[in-house]
Write a structure and sequence with these properties.
- The protein contains no helices and 7 strands.
- 0% of the residues lie in helices and 61% in strands.
- It has a single domain, classed as Jelly Rolls.
- With 104 residues, the protein is mainly β.
Length: 104
């Protein structure tokens, strides 16, 4: 679903990001991935939760490597380096607290 008030961004090859809802305390974001696309390793001061709405992913969180499937979720604490690789075309629904102003 496209929400005209929040444009689609393409932060990495094969990745589409769209804010779904936000206020100063919380942001909900959809990330759609092509198979083989990666979310580059990074960290930020926001606490993040990720829910796998579609597909299969390999996540890197600190020193951990985890495989997540539809219905799985993960929490990434503030400041922890993380990223992912899409193993099967998919969608992640991420929540950030506080809001990621850099996504607006």
């Amino acid at each position: 679903m496209s929400r005209p008030e929040y444009p689609v961004a393409h932060p990495d090859t094969g990745v589409a990001r769209q804010v779904l809802a936000e206020n100063s305390d919380l942001m909900v974001v959809s990330f759609r991935f092509d198979t083989g696309a990666c979310g580059a390793l990074h960290s930020h001061p926001h606490t993040q939760s990720t829910y796998v709405a579609k597909g299969r992913f390999r996540f890197f969180r600190g020193d951990e490597t985890l495989e997540l499937n539809v219905g799985d979720s993960i929490v990434i604490p503030s400041g922890v380096t993380h990223g992912c690789e899409c193993l099967e075309v998919g969608e992640l629904i991420d929540n950030f607290t506080p809001r990621r102003d850099d996504f607006l």
